[in-house]
Design a protein that fits this description.
- Strand 2, helix 3 and strand 3 form a beta-alpha-beta unit.
- The protein has a five-stranded parallel beta sheet with strand order 3-2-1-4-5, sandwiched between helices.
- The chain is elongated, with a radius of gyration of 18 Å.
- The protein contains six helices and five strands.
- It has a single domain, classed as HUPs (Rossmann fold).
Amino acid sequence: MIWAERATTALVAAAACAAGALSAAGYVLQTPDAPGPADVIVVLGGFGPPRAERAARLFADGGAQRILVAGAGDCEAIREMLIARGAPPGAVETECASRSTLGNAKQAAPLLAGARSAILVTHWYHQRRALACFRATAPSIVFAGASVRRELPRWRLGWTGEPGAVLAEYAKIAWYALRYGIVAWSAPRGGAP
């Protein structure tokens, strides 16, 4: 019976930690948007349609004259979505080899040569780590975020499809700090684009 009590206690503690992490996510993981204008819009692959939509709106509003889609999997689909939403084919470049956020930054850096500023488009809970990776990899470029925002209030996050991704993001932030020395809460260099 002692093992059942310990298991129940552990389960309750884990649920409380998860609930706290989800409740704090909007404050801890989200960064303020500073969408441009910039030299280039960088769209990260994964969850393509909302990211493509956000980038297409930025492009249409004059956020930049060039778009770079980075990441394996859906980069060509995102490119096609951007073109379908009005971006000229010659303005959209792809990097379809990278398979992680740090890989996105490393593979995209050479393609960003000459850019002084960039707007990074990804989901709200991924923005802090993504910005840290790009700032560490291409320190001469001023990166700002333009997040795909959550649709529901923070207290309803547990009833959406995002809780697993949000909880995983905490672990990924810790892993990137320990493994690569990329700290998601370090101060950005320079100003916003």
